Amino acid sequence: MEQLVIASNNSGKIAEIRSMLSQLQLLSLQDIGYTHELAEPYHTFEENALAKAAAISAFSGKNVFSDDSGLCINAMNGAPGVDSAHYSGSRNDEQNLQKVLDGLTSQPDRSAYYKAVVCLIWEGETWFFEGICRGSIATEQQGDNGFGYDPIFMPDGYDQTFGELPLTVKNKISHRGQAIRKMVAFIEERMAIK
C-alpha cells in the first residue's frame, strides 16, 4: 500500500483525515520518528503548509502533505486566520475559542468561514488544494466533537455546530474535507496512470 505522511500529530485531525484516505497508509510524524516542532512562521496558509510539507519531505524522503487552516471571522477583519492555533497567545483550544467569543460579544455580524490549504509533495512535485466552509459563530459552545473552534462554528445550512455534527457529516462539508477530497482525487488519478 502506498504510504503518505501527514505533517501532524494532531490526533483529531489525523482521525478525520484517515477516515477519508482508505487506499493509502497514512503515517503521522510520530510514525516516522519526527520529534521537532514544525514552524508556521508565515502570514499565509499556503506558505505555512509548504514550509511544513517541505520539512517533512526532506526528513522522510516520502510523499507528504500538510495543511494550514484557520477560522476567519468577517467582523474581526479575518482574524484569527493564520493565527487560529495560538490566537490567545498559546496553543490552547479552550482559550482561543473563548477569545473569539469575547471578541464578538456585542457584534451583530457573526459570519465566518473556515479555510484550509493542503500542500502535497508527491513524487517530488508540489501541489496545493483549497477548501472553504462558510458559516457563523454561535453565541456559546455547543457539542464535544471535533477540535479547535468546532464547538462554536455553525456551517451554513445546519442548526448544529461542527462540535455537534457527526464526523461523517463534518467531513462532507468541512473546509479540510473539501481540500482533502481534491487531494485524494488527484492522488488516485496519479496512481491510476502508473
Features:
single chain, 34% helix, 194 residues, 6 helices, alpha/beta, six-stranded mixed beta sheet
Please describe what this structure looks like:
This protein is of the alpha/beta class and 194 residues long. 34% of the residues lie in helices and 23% in strands. The protein contains six helices and six strands, in the order βαβααβαβββαα. It has helices spanning 11-18, 29-32, 45-60, 93-103, 167-173, 175-193; strands at 3-6, 25-27, 64-73, 111-122, 125-137, 153-155. Strands 2-1-3-4-5-6 form a six-stranded mixed beta sheet. β4 and β5 (125-137) form a beta hairpin. α5 crosses α6. The two termini are 14 Å apart. The mean pLDDT is 92.
Order of helices and strands: EHEHHEHEEEHH
The largest sheet is:
6 strands, mixed
What is the radius of gyration computed over CA atoms, rounded to a whole number of angstroms?
A: 17 Å
The portion of residues forming beta strands comes to: 15-25%
Q: How large is the count of helical segments?
A: 6
Q: What is the number of E strands?
A: 6
Shape: globular
Helical content band:
25-40%
What structural class do helix, strand and pairing data support? alpha/beta
Spatial strand sequence of the major β-sheet: 2-1-3-4-5-6
Low-confidence stretches: none
Distance between the termini: 14 Å
What's the mean pLDDT score?
92
